[in-house]
UniProtKB/TrEMBL annotation:
Localization in the cell: Mitochondrion matrix
Function: Key enzyme of fatty acid beta-oxidation. Able to isomerize both 3-cis (3Z) and 3-trans (3E) double bonds into the 2-trans (2E) form in a range of enoyl-CoA species, with a preference for (3Z)-enoyl-CoAs over (3E)-enoyl-CoAs. The catalytic efficiency of this enzyme is not affected by the fatty acyl chain length.
GO MF term list: delta(3)-delta(2)-enoyl-CoA isomerase activity
Pathway info: Lipid metabolism; fatty acid beta-oxidation
Protein name, entry field: Enoyl-CoA delta isomerase 1, mitochondrial
Record has Transit peptide as a keyword: yes
Length: 284
């Protein structure tokens, strides 16, 4: 097939499948790049994009829209200039209302299953700190570009909590077993250059624009790859992790709720929240 015909066919199929996004998102900006039809989803929940039920529900909805519209790819980034996302909203875990906590955890599971298992390619332009749940979202993407001088990692043990098994499997899909064990048991946050050295990210960037440019370039690798072959291959690698959670979804919610409501765990969260607040007071 002539290159020009191929590009015309590609453009036609993209136009007919252009995603239609709800303009009602409160915590997200969603935009499609006219040059390559890649969608950029920008987390926008100040001050630190902490993942509460509302934000998770919106991310889940946008992922559904992207899948339905057969999007050629998605970049996840942040509107903040120093935080990608601060991870799960600690207020959803501190003295939780059980019914609300179940909805919250269900939404998190949904986002993980949809993002980790998306048929379309995904990249994270990590333009700020990405602790815990922030690191999880970044690791769910297939490619990570991170701006220098920020931190990323699963630091749950520092808060006296435990990263669920599906968080751990996501890290095991990204870095070695040895590095995962050391990182998780110590709750290590990696600086950007350390993350690159261990393979937790794929490229460093000087700033957000550079990160977006490099993330966009990632999708060029798939221009000549049939999407179905790509999607099946990804599913062969990640699908069994997702099936495991699907089978154990209710149990995972119940176990997490019973652990998170233990007095010792609640005390740990209170202590951590106080540290966050004190940090601000001692800086003032
Ligand atoms: C023993 C068995 C237990 C089993 C439990 C089982 C399962 C539970 C599993 C859960 C997995 C958990 C995953 C998570 O994601 S937990 C969240 C982890 N996140 C963090 O540790 C990050 C904390 N935040 C920071 O380090 C910093 O805020 C920052 C991201 C580096 C940004 O720093 P910056 O200086 O820019 O901002 P501030 O620190 O001043 O923060 C501004 C403001 O936001 C509040 N805040 C920060 N992070 C969170 C958060 N994650 N949730 C809610 N609120 C947050 C902070 O307190 C400030 O509030 P203020 O009112 O003072 O303005």
């Amino acid at each position: 097939m002539m290159a020009s015909t191929r590009s015309l066919l590609r453009t036609k199929s993209l136009i007919s499948n252009l995603p239609r996004f709800s303009s009602n998102y409160k915590c997200l900006d969603v935009s499609v790049n006219n040059d390559n039809n890649i969608t950029t989803v920008t987390l926008k929940r100040p001050p630190v994009n902490s993942l509460n039920l509302d934000l998770l529900s919106e991310i889940s909805d946008v992922l559904t829209d992207l899948k339905k519209s057969k999007s050629p790819g998605m970049i996840l980034t942040s509107s903040s200039d120093k935080v990608f996302t601060a991870g799960l909203d600690i207020m959803e875990m501190h003295k939780p209302d059980p019914e609300r906590f179940k909805q919250f955890w269900y939404a998190l599971q949904d986002v993980w299953m949809k993002l980790y298992g998306s048929p379309f390619p995904t990249a994270a332009a990590i333009n700020g700190h990405a602790p815990a749940g922030g690191c999880l979202l970044a690791m769910c993407c297939e490619y990570r570009v991170m701006v220098q001088n920020f931190n990323i990692g699963l630091n749950e043990t520092q808060l006296g909590i435990v990263a669920p098994i599906w968080f751990i499997k996501t890290m095991l899909n990204t870095i070695s077993i040895r590095d995962t064990e050391l990182a998780l048991t110590t709750g290590r946050l990696f600086k950007t250059d350390e993350a690159l050295a261990v393979g937790l990210i794929d490229e460093m960037a000087t700033d957000k624009a550079d990160a977006l440019k490099k993330a966009n370039a990632f999708f060029e690798r798939f221009e000549m790859i049939p999407p179905i072959a790509r999607a099946y291959t990804k599913d062969s690698l990640r699908g069994s992790d997702i099936e495991d959670l699907k089978k154990n979804r209710e149990k995972d919610i119940q176990t997490t709720l019973s652990l998170i409501t233990q007095p010792k765990v609640q005390q740990g969260l209170e202590f951590y929240l106080a540290l966050l607040k004190n940090k601000k007071e001692s800086a003032a």
